[in-house]
Amino acid sequence: MLQPDTALVLFSGGQDSTTCLAWALERYARVETIGFDYGQRHAIELTVRPAVLAGVRAIKPEWDARLGEDHMVDLSVIGRISDTALTSNVEIAMQENGLPNTFVPGRNLLFMTVAATLAYRRGLNVLVGGMCETDFSGYPDCRDDTMKALQVALNLGMATRVKLETPLMWIDKKQTWQLAQAAGGMALVDLIREQTHTCYLGERGTLRAWGYGCGTCPACELRARGYAQFAAEGASAS
């Protein structure tokens, strides 16, 4: 049921954030999007964002009516102070602290803080992010506890009642594909396959069954495995 609230979706141009955008468009009267250029190695995701947004608008007239302004924010300072596989051309590997070097310290904390600042100015009272504890690489800033603590801190520090929504928090990648299908049908599934970008290496040469990507980085492996499970379940159901 459509709520009278308004939402700001953290939208990268990838599978998860596109699914979250569709989820928000089904629930909120006005939805805006925010993206971040943080010097990411897979900057191709910024290039595909306009086409993905246009594709989302075309799926349902009511989505087009509800989807408002898109905001791009320069957070290249993250790339300048980070030394990670997402901001430098280094091999993806595990670190001594047990986290993969694709973890960008403070990234989601800063993203949410900047998003809350913009939401304050724009009069938007819900922030929507694609953080997930089920299919993730062990990133501590994707945990539910982190998001709950951040919501408290933001509202205390800004004297607001902003709500942080993470619709993917407790579902896996197969269920993320299913959520996309439930929200926008196969039109949204195909848009995600053909237009969005998830690959950490920025590879966009060959369109596979699950989309573009190198097929070997952690993001591609999760996306491919989830799509195979989604497709197999759909085939068995039919």
UniProtKB/TrEMBL annotation:
Its cofactor is Zn(2+). Pathway: Purine metabolism; 7-cyano-7-deazaguanine biosynthesis. Its EC number is 6.3.4.20. It catalyses: 7-carboxy-7-carbaguanine + NH4(+) + 2 ATP = 7-cyano-7-carbaguanine + 2 AMP + 2 diphosphate + 2 H(+). The keyword Ribosomal protein does not apply. InterPro entries: QueC, Rossmann-like_a/b/a_fold. Zn(2+) binds at residues 199, 214, 217, 220. It comes from the Bacteria. Binds 1 zinc ion per subunit. ATP binds at residues 11-21. Transmembrane segments: none annotated. GO terms for biological process: tRNA queuosine(34) biosynthetic process. SUPFAM superfamilies: Adenine nucleotide alpha hydrolases-like. One of its GO terms (molecular function) is zinc ion binding. Keywords: ATP-binding, Ligase, Metal-binding, Nucleotide-binding, Queuosine biosynthesis, Zinc. The keyword ATP-binding applies. Belongs to the QueC family. Catalyzes the ATP-dependent conversion of 7-carboxy-7-deazaguanine (CDG) to 7-cyano-7-deazaguanine (preQ(0)). This is 7-cyano-7-deazaguanine synthase.
